[in-house]
From TrEMBL:
Enzyme class: oxidoreductase
Organism of provenance: Nematocida ausubeli (strain ATCC PRA-371 / ERTm2)
HEAT repeat extents: 72-112
Record-listed E.C. numbers: 1.14.99.29
Protein name per its UniProtKB record: Deoxyhypusine hydroxylase
Signal peptide: none
Binding-site residues, Fe cation 1: 58-59, 91-92
Name of the gene: LIA1
PROSITE patterns named in the record: HEAT_REPEAT
GO cellular component: cytoplasm; nucleus
Family statement drawn from the similarity comment of this UniProt entry: Belongs to the deoxyhypusine hydroxylase family.
Length: 299
């Protein structure tokens, strides 16, 4: 590692770990460390798990999975096993572990798929999906650049995908695979089908949160009304609402921005912080092109 890169890792790690820094600046430091992707940057990210921000810890776990640096695996396992950690963070750690596709971790995910072990429905469901992902060979980089918790279903008609996606008798992995296939189609019709996933009879916070995440990847204006409705719904789990806020930040419509601005002072911390990040994402994409969310190179 060059001196320039070493200094960059230290500087970004310091920003990420400092509680007094604005959250949006800490997020940018995190994504900069992600782009460097060395053992040292993994350790810099791991050191930030002491933060009091559940939102940031959740993002740390997500980024460690996306980096695919195996140094992160024992760190993620520790987070998953920590019953005192917030379930949103533990779920993200489990999902990140699964993206590596390492069969050595399949028994761990099977163990925590048991609700009596995980003590969290969201964590159990994540581990159920993750164990199946590993058995299917692990995640593959999508056209959106992400490593997803399920591989997109093979070619099928949009109606067939809809049937699988909404069929609650199917495994969560199968439904996720259909969800990502609908994302890949990317049409307004696909958006409307995906939005039906917010209204399942047997509600799954995990499933609904993934719908919001997918909408964030698609950035389709037709999804804004659905995301705004769910974000404003106080009966929805924080896991779902926070993902809606970040997704709205990727959509360049007044409706999306207004939905975020309406909740920028909400008392709930994770929702408020997600709105802050959503607005910052919006500024990055649509307002100020000089903002740097991801630093591509330090060489």
């Amino acid at each position: 590692m060059s001196t320039t890169t070493e200094n960059a890792v230290k500087n970004f790690s310091d920003i990420l770990q400092r509680e007094t820094e604005p959250l949006k600046l800490r997020f940018r430091a995190l994504f900069a460390l992600r782009s460097i992707c060395t053992d040292e940057s993994v350790h810099g990210i791991a050191a930030a798990f002491t933060t009091t921000s559940v939102l940031l810890k959740h993002e740390l776990a997500y980024v460690l999975g996306q980096m695919q640096n195996r140094t992160a695996l024992p760190i993620l396992e520790r987070i998953l096993r920590d019953g005192s950690e917030d379930e949103i963070v533990r779920h993200e750690a489990a999902e990140a572990i699964a993206t590596f596709g390492d069969m050595a971790y399949e028994p761990l995910l099977r163990e925590y798929a048991d609700l009596s072990v995980s003590k969290s429905k969201a964590v159990s469901e994540t581990c159920e999906i993750g164990a199946e992902l590993i058995r299917n060979g692990g995640s593959k980089r999508s056209e959106f650049g992400s490593l997803d918790p399920a591989v997109s279903a093979e070619s099928a008609s949009i109606e067939k995908l809809r049937q699988t996606y909404l069929d609650e008798s199917k495994s969560l992995y199968e439904r996720y695979a259909a969800m990502f296939a609908l994302r890949d189609i990317g049409t307004e019709e696909a958006v409307e089908i995906l939005a039906e996933g917010f209204n399942n009879k047997n509600r799954s916070d995990l499933f609904e949160h993934e719908v919001a995440f997918v909408f964030g990847q698609m950035s389709h204006p037709a999804s804004a009304k659905h995301l705004a409705r769910v974000l404003a719904d106080e009966n929805r789990h924080e896991m779902v609402r926070h993902e809606c806020a970040e997704a709205l930040g990727t959509i360049n419509t007044k409706e999306a921005e207004d939905a975020l601005l309406a909740l920028k002072d909400i008392p709930n911390r994770i929702i408020r912080e997600s709105v802050e990040i959503g607005l910052d994402i919006h500024d990055y994409h649509f307002t100020d092109p000089a903002l740097e969310y991801i630093v591509e190179s330090f060489e």
